[in-house]
Amino acid sequence: TPRAAAGAMPTPCSPRRASKERARAGAGGSRGAPLQHSFLTDVSDVCEMEGGLLGLLSDFHSGKLQAFGKECSFEQLEHVREMQEKLARLHFGLDVCVEELPQEQKKAAADRNLDQLLAHV
Length: 121
Fold this sequence. Notes:
The protein has 121 residues and is mostly helical. The chain contains five helices and no strands. Helix 4 (74-99) runs antiparallel to helix 5 (103-119).
């Protein structure tokens, strides 16, 4: 479809689709029966979604899509991830030490650990 080729996402609920869903809900007879959405069963909807997703994937690989702008490279994102992982390891290491302390010393140790973590941010 033209929308799928352009990478546009389908509208969430067209009037045609809503009336189909209401008809299915009414045909069930029981009020507690789950509503089956037509986008799960209509081949045309699945093909349209697939086309949209393939368009997004193509845009991503070609560099048209950038979640954080042109000034933020993958190397910078990897560096941030490495710093987060280092901080997480420090956090877990400090937490193990606090768990071994008596209850009355845990608050002071936790405060010191928080100061240490913030110093590494």
